[in-house]
Design a protein that fits this description.
Chain lengths: ~110, ~110
């Protein structure tokens, strides 16, 4: 079993839809949870991060972490064609010089106008 | 100004050759990384350097050798290139005291023929 599982999709939605992206993980040592967005032929860019369990909202994006279920989610409200990208969940056990991100495989999202 | 820059952006080379990829960050971060993204978009850490010291060295063939001349630069040298080395290589950096956000470069697309 991989440490982080993420459905690769592809996921295709109409403009304005609510998008739900999810990851599960097996290692309870993960403490930091992130979502990265990667446009085609570009580097990943950080969208959201949360520490431990809870919710975090930033504009149209909401990140949720449920450590008891080892499950994290990213919700995108009022999705736009510019949201079309690959979304990667990432996790780390600690910060500092041992900081190492473990990524999911990414979900390819297409938002159709 | 580009925060994390890599050169070259594209690299096509023959099997058996030796090549280098350069990375520079102007964010003042003290930790830098190399990640590899394979054809299935799976992003995996290879190396991490903190203040020019090797911190993380995942299971990577000895043909791959990172070098950090100073904390703003982390280069990746690859000897005796193989077909399986074809991938996109991403450099990233983060600040140890802000331990959740890694900034990625645009990637170097390496094709070994």
């Amino acid at each position: 079993q991989k440490e982080v599982e993420q459905d690769p999709g592809p996921l295709s939605v109409p403009e304005g839809a609510i998008v739900s992206l999810n990851c599960t993980y097996s290692n309870s040592a993960f403490q930091y949870f992130m979502w990265y967005r990667q446009y085609s032929r570009k580097g990943p860019e950080l969208l959201m991060y949360t520490y431990s369990s809870g919710n975090k909202e930033d504009g149209r994006f909401t990140a949720q972490v449920d450590k008891s279920s080892k499950y994290i989610s990213l919700f995108i409200r009022d999705s736009q064609p510019s949201d079309s990208a690959t979304y990667l969940c990432a996790m780390s056990k600690s910060g500092g010089s041992n900081y190492k991100l473990t990524f999911g495989k990414g979900t390819l999202l297409t938002v159709n106008p | 100004d580009t925060a994390v820059s890599q050169t070259p952006k594209y690299l096509v080379t023959q099997m058996g050759n030796d090549k280098s990829i350069k990375c520079e960050q102007n964010l003042g971060h003290d930790t830098m990384y190399w990640y590899k993204q394979d054809s299935k978009k799976f992003l995996k850490i290879m190396f991490s350097y903190n203040n020019k010291e090797l911190i993380i060295n995942e299971t990577v063939p000895n043909r791959f050798s990172p070098k950090s001349p100073d904390k703003a630069h982390l280069n990746l040298h690859i000897n005796s290139l193989e077909l399986g080395d074809s991938a996109v290589y991403f450099c990233a950096s983060s600040q140890e005291t802000v331990n959740t956000e890694a900034f990625f470069g645009q990637g170097t697309r390496l094709t070994v023929v």
